[in-house]
Amino acid sequence: MCVIGHYAIENMHILRFGKYQNPACFYPIYSEKFFLNMSLLPFFPGFLYVCPNLPGLCGVYWCKPARLTPPETPRRSYRVRKMNNRGRTPGSAGRTVRPSVQQNGLTMRKRDMTPTRNTNLVPNASFIGDRFLGVRLDQDELDHANHLMTSKLYNKENLNNSISEPNSPEKKNVESEALKQMMRHKSAGALTDADDGDRILCYKKNLAPPPAIGYINQAKVLYSTNSVINPASSVKKSTRHVKETASKVLDGPGLTKDLYSRHLDWGCHNWVAVALGHELYLWNTETCVIKNFFEDNAPTSEGMITSVRWSQEGRYISLGYASGAVKIYDPNRPKTTEYVRELRTLRVGGASRCASIAWKKQGVMTCGYKSGDIVNHDVRVAQHVVSSWGGDNGHSRDITALEWSSDENMCVSASSDRTAKVWDGRHTRGDGVVQDPEPLFTIDEHTGQVRTAQFCSFRDGILATAGGINDGTVRLWDVKRQCQKIRELNVCETGGVGGIVFNRPYSEMLTASDDGFLRIFRFNANYKLSHEIQASNEPIMDLVGSPYDEVLIGDMEETLKVFQLFTVDKSTNILDRTAPKNVGLNVR
Amino acid sequence: MTDVKTQNAITLKGSATLVKEFFHFGINSILYQRALYPADSFKREKRYGLALFVTHDKKLQAFMDPFLQQVEYWLAKKQLKRLVMVISEVKTKEVVERWQFDIHTEDVAEDGENAHRVKDEKKIRQEMSDVLRQITASVSFLPLLEEPCSFDVLIYTGKDTQAPEDWTESGACLIPNSETVQLRSFSTSVHGVNTNVQYKADF
Where is this region: Disordered (chain A) (predicted)? Predict the structure, then answer.
């Protein structure tokens, strides 16, 4: 056995079988810090060695100190001696003991050892001189392993499997194959299990269709220790199953490739509004009916649609345009003449590009403009501007997102000026027009544009803000505690985060980012990433959640995909399923 | 009385169809359980009171169908002695697993007086489902297939059997130093099928 140096294989015990994929060397377990490679052999007696990848020899070896230590543990020999003492006269004991010990190959006697050491204290310990070497396994196991090692299973042929061996296994196989070929006529039984005279036929040999390229045995990912596949990255340990494929995929030709527009909105009645350039489509996700809202007669005078938003109860839809105008439509209204579904157009002097709209319940619509101004419109009255949040206290660049908290006490605005602001809901309406109040909080920790912001739907007062390009983080704030930062989550390394959706049944946060991934974070103590789903190869521009369990994304490939990420298992009654409230919107 | 008799009567042809169906589900189960092909290329089918996975990959179906047809033909002609599914590594061609189905055919005439045996079909299916269940359970002891693997199907037949073009003479593809696990067997009372799996010992 050339690899094992001058210690023959008989001196090596197999302690454990297993596969070790690490470098082609033996190394002692006792001191893992330094590796013994092949050239540094021979082995030190009493050490454990790991044989990683010699075929047929994988395992952990214990180098049995053949000459230096007794084959049995001292404890046993002590017992033997005690037994030997029995039945002899006390005086003769000393003389009879020594020869029997020497017979066993003992080189140490009791009096050579450190006087304080009691051999009975530590079972299964071996001693070299006065050194103590702990052996963790029972002698019986070692003996069994040795038997396995030296029995016929490990005959010469099997052991000669090392790389350096001139008779490599392949060669041997070729030889034996040739031998078999020669012997074919004489003894068919040696190489085939077919009866005499029978034929073995193979169907389309080697022509079975190969599996898909790149397919990896899932079991291998789970159980293999091979370093090529990193189990940690390929399979995330998670508590629930998430369907990683899109349940519906829609084509969205003309979806503007603008990260700062809001192209989609999912109404509470499961009608999804999709803005494609000048056009608006309404898609019912339950019946899959698609309506072209303007019926090829879309208004083009205001420019592209830059934001779409259903009112909270889903009766009206508001569209923000590049010109700064905001139009409100009623899809329920029968269409008799041109643009009759349009209820009104709201314009603000000097405003351009309304890219974010948020509705309050009482007919108040908050719009953010390119200038950084936020204007609250009361859509029911002629003098619709009730307040404007801007000026020195406001944002200096365009508003990217606006959201009201569920109790409507606060409104968050995200802006390209790298800040997000939280506004007091009481400043919406006053005696006159409320001008430029001071925001409650200003969040200025983001290193890039703040692309979106969202209040947590299941935990009161938690606000999430997401950074754009050069940031890629989601930061969580507690607005109830002076907007204290709770956590900073690095979501996307290579781009920004385009959307956040909160999922109440599972207490999770879903993010969509520029690398095309949807990521789910658990909202427990450590906000751990639980799932990663590659939803697209291109940046995801929009992410909206349905009232129930689905999310819709719009990406730069002009496709819309629906993912069922939050499906609640009906069999487990822990999570309660709340059906979406249907207001019975009937688009004519 | 005659009704009962005809219901439970198994002819050679009917038995061949039953055994072919078993091979269809058996081979698909092995492909799925041993993860030779991605799990999402299989779809669930309820059979023998079990949920079994059958491939819906077009290429694989096109590979399997003619071969199962031929197997059924040989079964009906009493010429099939053994069917072996060989799983080998794609790169090294080393055989790592060998699923062997020994077929014992009773002396039944193709037609005439001695043309059928009596056995309840329900019982036959029960026996088949036991074997399929064992195939599913075998994942627990079979070594993990670390490398990409492919499969071949061998049949053992008599000397005078005529074979279509697709079939070529082959060796037995035995595994040296293999472990063998005997699975259950079933019998249609015309064909008895005895299953075992051989695999490369892990060390």
Answer: 82-120
